[in-house]
Amino acid sequence: MGGRDATMVLLDENGIRCDGRKIDEPRKIMIRAGGLKNADGSAYIEFGDNKILVGVFGPRDVHPKHMSNTDTGILRVRYHMEPFSVDERKRPAPSRREIEISKVIKEALEPAVMLEKFPRTAVDVFIEVLQADGGTRCAALSAASVALADAGIPMRDMVAAIASGKVADTIILDVNNEEDQAGQADMPVGYMPNLKKITLLQLDGVLTSEEYKKCVTVGVEGCKLVYEIQKQALNDKYFGKKGD
Amino acid sequence: MASKTVLDELKRTQILELLEQGKRIDGRALDEPREIVIEVNAIPKANGSAKVRLGDTEVLCGVKIQPDKPFPDVGDKGIFMCTAELLPLSHPTVETGPPQAPVIELARVVDRGIRESHMVDVSQLVIEKDKSVVGVFADIVVIDYDGNLFDACSYAATAALLTSKSPKWTMVDDKVTIVDGEESKLPTTTIPVSVTMGKIGNHIVVDPNGDEWDSMDARVTITTDSDGNICALQKGGSDGFTLDEMVQCGETSIRVGKQIREKLKAAQEGVQ
Question: What's the pTM value of the predicted model, to 2 decimals?
Answer without folding.
Answer: 0.89
